[in-house]
Structures
1.
Amino acid sequence: RLQLGLDHTLVVLNSLVNADGSTPEKNQNKVVITLINLEYESNRQFYGANLAFAQQQVRVNPPVVFNLDLIISAQFDDYAESLKLLSLIAGFFQENPGLSRNSFPTMPASLPNLSVEIESSNSSKTHNLWTALGAKYLPSIMYKVRQVPIQGKQIQLANQAISDTSSGVEL
């Protein structure tokens, strides 16, 4: 919006087709971000998490981590406008391959850093994807967002924090 000097949003998070196969009206003349795959990241770096909470140390299960495959498509009446906006999106992610709260303070606290990279796709794979989605092809680009954590807050174990070390033994 800032780069184009617009006062309205051009980007929506939505499916490419409705359940009946029609195109959602809210996608018209928008850039549409669609989740096309959710891949569980099985390479665990952390097996538990201890958090300080109200004078206690609590243990919660480790977060589950996912990689997201997104397709960003431009659904504009003017084909040239679609290509222009896809170019701006590719430029944005080329400049910002990693998104963090330092650079983007409105990101949720639960998302410390996001790594975004272009997902290469040959024409056969692209054709199969659009066929599987049940949509007509639109100018688009695919991205993989790596290591998106999902953390529940269910406490598994709580221990009182030790605040007195006068016995001479430090823990």
Note: DSSP finds two helices and nine strands in the chain.
2.
Amino acid sequence: MTNVSQSRSVSHAGFWAIIITVATLDLWSKAAIVAWLAPARRPIEVTPFFNLRLGYNPGISFGLFPAEGEVARAILVGFTLLMALVISWLGLRSQSGTERAGFALIAGGALGNVIDRGSDGLVTDFLDLHVFGWHWPTFNLADVAITCGVVMLLFASFLVSRFENSLQDPKP
């Protein structure tokens, strides 16, 4: 096996490891927070701007487009699985480590949320940011991973390509 194929297989293994780790941490955190917060039936103030608040999301992001009924839930789960597969395929095709990690974070977050939704049609949310009376919609670790993955893809698209181009075309 050559060095190129060895590094590629490690990259693929790392890609799958990120997906599995993100999904596992997300599902574990949701189970732990439900066990901890459900009996309390009230939010727990962690800082003046951050609470742990148990909520359930029937929709896509931030409760948009709630899936009511079995057919709508099945469509939402199927669509999310399809998107996770497409994102995984794109990540495996990527030659950039930053892009590959970004795609893996997105796919891992989508997988965590789709597994959570599969049990009762709802996604468990518990992270609550607020400031000056304004609340961001409650979210979870899968949402954090998806957001970080998108930021990494944007970073790779805009900053890394510009940096690489400036190295290839030095100005006289």
Note: Residues 1-10 have pLDDT under 50 and may be disordered.
